[in-house]
Request: fold
Amino acid sequence: MIEPRRFGDERGWFTEVYNEQSFADRGIVERFVQDNHSLSVPVGTVRGLHFQTPPHGQAKLVRCIRGRIFDVAVDVRRGSPTWGKWVGAELSAENGRQLFVPVGFAHAFMTLEPNTEVTYKVSGLYSPANDGGIRWDDPAVGIDWPTPAGVTPVLSPKDARLPLLADFDSPFAYDGQPLSPLPIDVR
Reply:
């Protein structure tokens, strides 16, 4: 979890959302090659849990630029002691937080406000042949989604058909770094 510093005055604020050297100093050395931007109109829109398999894996740096989301990463690395475990956090335009999702983690978010916009940098170009995912509501993963009262989650037909984690033969290798809680790293 990264919380870039905001420098404000009577005009508003300025923030540096990405600096290659600053991120490298914190161990994030991925080279980002593509920026993505999504608009989700209804509250309760779920996008994910997505990943790209090797050799076209994608690390992601996610931020919400309008509205609010609950952002999640799930460990899907074969042999990891935290296999199937997840972390999640609220990202919003107001709080300015970003979540770094390494290769080997499935990623998803749920919108908590209408007309929410999310941008994210990725470390690999989109590869349809390597596009994959697992079910957003897999009971074995047990994500505690903060679904707003009276809202039925909205998914794409593709996301609604994703397999359960138990049916996923992971090509991601465990790198020795277990999933850990999300401390906020102020840059």
